[in-house]
Design a protein that fits this description.
With 256 residues, the protein is α/β, with parallel strands linked by helices. Helix content is 44%, strand content 18%. The modification 4-aspartylphosphate is found at residue 69.
Length: 256
């Protein structure tokens, strides 16, 4: 995911370059009001009311954020989210969904969305979350450049610039969220984090009621970096407290 940081570095160098936001929303009234407020904040906004067209626009690249409704004509929002996370460039995603579609919201977060808002939502709150998300993305890019080189924990190597991770030189294929989670752990080896800590630090918001999203990503990450995911030796569960990345030489068992 090297393009993520390089793209945002280019944006910093272009001081007058407006952030480009793609809205894929089939409710034209919602999209128009949201577009108006975002343009008041000096964002460049493009709207699509159709999933197929929205996906084509997304694939053209160059977007700083995607606001994505899940219930769309054509390609649905979950599929767009999945395809977005398979693209080279990382685009922050905020999903919106009807209150009754809790399962869809959970799936959206687990597919790699950065945030969600349930409908009906406050347009001002959504604009505030867009601004907060873009600030967090820029801070992550800046921090990775300041930190410079790779982080090494035992045989694991995590490079925040290229967004690559390897184990004994073998590439590990990670989703953007899995990479962010592993990199966060690697910055704090041996430290225990609760699920809410991880949601706040890695996802950017405390999604109360969605702590199980962390469990899902931990399990997926273990499947990729552990010799035996059922007997983890790296990402350990500290019962009643949370998770930690084991220090090299630390006993390889989940702690009581």
């Amino acid at each position: 995911m090297a393009g993520f940081y390089r793209s945002h570095l280019r944006h910093e160098l272009l001081m007058d370059h407006p952030k480009r936001i793609l809205i894929v929303e089939d409710d034209v009234d919602i999209a128009n009001v949201l577009s108006l407020h975002l343009r008041d904040e000096r964002y460049e906004v493009v709207h699509s009311a159709d999933g197929n067209e929205g996906l084509r626009l997304l694939e053209q690249g160059g977007w700083d954020a995607l606001i994505l409704d899940l219930m769309l004509p054509g390609v649905d929002g979950l599929e767009i989210c999945r395809r977005a996370r398979a693209m080279t460039r990382y685009t922050p995603i905020i999903i919106t969904s009807a209150r009754s579609s809790e399962v869809h919201r959970i799936l959206g977060l687990e597919l790699g969305a950065d945030d969600y808002l349930a409908k009906p939502f406050s347009v001002l709150e959504l604009v505030a979350r867009v601004k907060a998300l873009l600030r967090r993305v820029e801070a992550m890019a800046k921090d990775s450049r300041i930190d410079g080189g790779s982080v090494r924990i035992g045989t694991l190597t995590i490079d925040p610039i290229t967004r690559d991770a390897t184990d004994s030189g073998r590439p590990i294929e990670l989703t953007p969220r899995e990479f962010d989670l592993l990199y966060f752990f690697a910055q704090h080896p041996g430290k225990v984090f609760s699920r809410m800590d991880l949601l706040n630090a890695v996802w950017g918001y405390q999604h109360e009621g969605y702590e199980h999203t962390v469990n899902t990503h931990i399990n997926r990450l273990r499947a990729k970096i552990e010799a035996d995911p059922a007997q983890p030796e790296r990402i350990l569960t500290v019962w009643g407290r949370g998770y930690k990345l084991a220090l090299p030489g630390e006993p390889h068992k989940d702690a009581p």
